[in-house]
Structure formats: C-alpha cells, structure tokens
Specification:
Largest sheet: 7 strands, parallel
Mean pLDDT: 90
CATH superfamily of the largest domain: Glycogen Phosphorylase B
Distance between the termini: 14 Å
Low-confidence stretches: none
CATH architecture of the largest domain: 3-Layer(aba) Sandwich
Radius of gyration: 21 Å
Helix content: 40-55%
Number of helices: 18
Strand content: 15-25%
CATH topology of the largest domain: Rossmann fold
Shape: globular
C-alpha cells in the first residue's frame, strides 16, 4: 500500500483535497491517506493527525499567537519524515506552513506535489523559485498562472478550478424557499461573513449594521454560517437581530438564489462568481496585519474574480471601507441600477466558462498516478 501525506489546513483546502481522494478511491487505488485535513477528507477515509480547527487562523498577528502549536506540528511532521516517510506528499494551498514542509520533504528525498499554488504573483514572488526547488510538480488552478510557471521553467500543470465540480445545487428555489421560510416576493440579500472566527468577529457586526438600513418589508436577509465557526461567537453577535435567516447548510443554494450578495474575500468569491449572482467583496483584518500586508502586496485587486479576468468586475471594499453604512450604499447603488447589475451578471458568465473547462480532481488524480508508475 502506498502512503500519501496531505496538508490541507483550511476549509476550502479540505474540500478540494477530498475531491481528489474521492476520485482515487473511485479508481480503486490502494493508497493510505493521512496528515492534516478536515471532515470532508475524513469522509473519504483520510486519517488526521491533528485537530483541523487549530489550523484555521489568518493574518500575521493571529499566526504569531498560535506559534507554539505550529512549532509542534512541524516537529511532529519532521519525525514522521525521518522514521516512516510517506511515498508522496501533497500540499494543498496554505503556503505559510506548506512551503516550509516542502523544503523539509526535499531534505528527506520525499516527492512533493503542490496542489493550488501559493499566490506568489500577489506577493512574495520568490516563492515561485522555492516551488521549483522544493516540489516535483505544481498543479495550479488559475489559468493566468501558466505564464509565470512557463517563464521560470517550473514543472506544472493547469488542472482547472475545483469549484467547477464541487458546486452542486441540491434544492430547487421553491424547496429552498420553503425550508428557510422565505418570502419569494421579496428581494433576497445574502451575506457570507467567512469561515474563521476572526472574520466573524470583524465582519458580521458590520453586515448586521448594513441590514439595519434596509426596509425588511421589501427584503429577506440571509447570513451563511460555516461549520468551522463557533456557535457561541456567531449566536452572540446575532442575538438581537430578529429579521435575519441563518443558513447553516445549502450555502450554494443561497449564493445562487439570492438577488445580491456580500462576500468575504477568499474562496467564496470565486464560488459566487461561478454561480453568477452579482456581489461585492469585503476584506478586513487587524490593523497591524493590514499595514504589514500593504507593504508586500503587488497587485491592485484582492478579489479572485477581478484578478482572473484582470478587470474590475465586482466592487471591493477593503479595511476601513468595510462599515455598515458603506456596505449598504454599495449594495443599493448596484441593485437600484439595472445597467450595473446586468453588467456584473454578464461578466460573471465569462468567468464561469473559463473556470469550468476541466475537472480538477481527475486531472490531479492523473498526476498522482504518474508518481507511482
């Protein structure tokens, strides 16, 4: 039996990796999958060696607060590589830890596949040289990255974006309406505050303030709650809000059936774009993390839909711009203008066609099989 060690340290990475494992299982491949991953991977017979929720931190300051845990993780992984090395290491996104583990793997001559490469084109371009030095193959998911890998002669493949096969709409709009007791005659505004507790604390209060400016006689307000978010934190913030619907599952249905969305920067922005509902992107982190990040970021956009098409498709509200009044004004500006609304909708269709051209799980499974030929 071949042993594959995975590191998927975020909710989205867990989802993407689980699709590849499921594809390998479908092919009856005799692999043992273990390492760092979440519930989606566990459902595909993956064995985790650490609690997944401990890895869901973001920003410079937040990582520093958890540094002792990450030192323990790295030490444990080093022991595994020394005493009982796996046959292949697959690193999924999560560059803060994964780039260090790639270097460690090289030291012990263990082959590395990097799936969903770090966004070196946004900051830390030198990471592309480390990818070339410490990995055997990079499977990338954004088509424009091809030019960078070709330029630096990195062994790599464009595998398509995993959302194209992961997004499944399981309920009709009528079923979704009935399940969540929604009024089909009102406009539906959806809010996605993120999958980390730190995001919920910073963004959800501002979303609720934005909601307070709207007349609930004309609108339904839907707020998604990720499984990785603390119930206590979420419910404490929303305790006094009576006119909202909390959506704990069926988030894809929420994205598709809402008339407009406010989405926290991250994977959800590309998912929303793929589904085609007009939206705005918001991003807010700690002041220190933001000020440090500004010194290194080399691109003018933060939203993946805007970056992929290299134009401003959907508006971005960043840091101090993220407040209830401003969010309300931006939503109202777009939903009250048929021209602006339809323009966003039209351009999102272009993105849908680009991202849906390949099956990422099959492409990555093919690459994995080649490692063992």
């Amino acid at each position: 039996m071949k042993r594959i060690f995975w590191i998927a340290g975020e909710n989205s990475a867990d989802f993407h990796a689980s699709g590849v494992i499921a594809e390998l299982n479908k092919r009856n491949k005799d692999f043992e999958h273990f390492g760092i991953g979440g519930s989606k991977m566990k459902a595909e017979k993956f064995r985790p060696i650490f609690p997944f929720e401990r890895f869901c931190v973001m920003g410079f300051i937040e990582v520093v607060k958890h540094i002792s845990f990450f030192i323990e993780v790295e030490s444990t992984i080093k022991t595994i590589f020394q005493s009982n090395p796996p046959d292949l290491i697959i690193l999924v996104d999560y560059p803060g830890l994964n780039m260090r583990i790639a270097k460690l793997a090289k030291k012990y001559n263990i082959p590395v596949l990097y799936y969903i490469s770090p966004q070196f084109w946004a900051w830390k371009y030198k990471r592309i040289f480390k990818l070339k030095q410490f990995t055997d193959h990079v499977a990338f998911i954004l088509p424009f990255e091809q030019k960078f890998f070709d330029k630096e002669d990195v062994t790599s493949s464009y595998v398509g974006h995993p959302i194209a096969e992961e997004i499944k709409i399981r309920m009709t709009k009528k079923e979704f309406t009935e399940k969540n007791n929604l009024d089909p005659n009102k406009k539906w505004l959806g809010f996605l505050p993120g999958s980390r507790n730190i995001e919920i604390k910073k963004l959800l209060p501002e979303f609720l303030k934005a909601i307070s400016y709207f007349n609930d006689k004309h609108y339904e307000f839907l707020i998604s709650k990720a499984t990785t978010v603390s119930n206590d934190i979420f419910l404490k913030i929303t305790a006094d809000s009576r006119n909202i619907r909390i959506i704990e599952d069926n988030s894809y249905e929420m994205m598709k059936y809402c008339d407009f969305l406010v989405v926290t920067s991250g994977t959800a922005t590309i998912e929303t774009a793929y589904l085609g509902t007009p939206f705005i992107i918001v991003y807010k982190t700690s002041k220190i993390s933001y000020e440090i990040g500004k010194k290194f970021i080399k691109i003018n956009r933060i939203g993946l839909p805007n970056i992929v098409l290299d134009k401003d498709i959907v508006p971005e509200l960043i840091q101090d711009e993220v407040n209830g009044k401003h969010i309300y004004e931006k939503i109202n500006e777009i939903i009250s203008s048929k021209e602006k609304y339809n323009r966003i909708s039209s351009e999102l269709k272009e993105l849908h066609n680009i991202l849906g051209s390949k099956s990422a799980s099959r492409e990555v499974a093919d690459i994995i099989e080649k490692f063992f030929q």
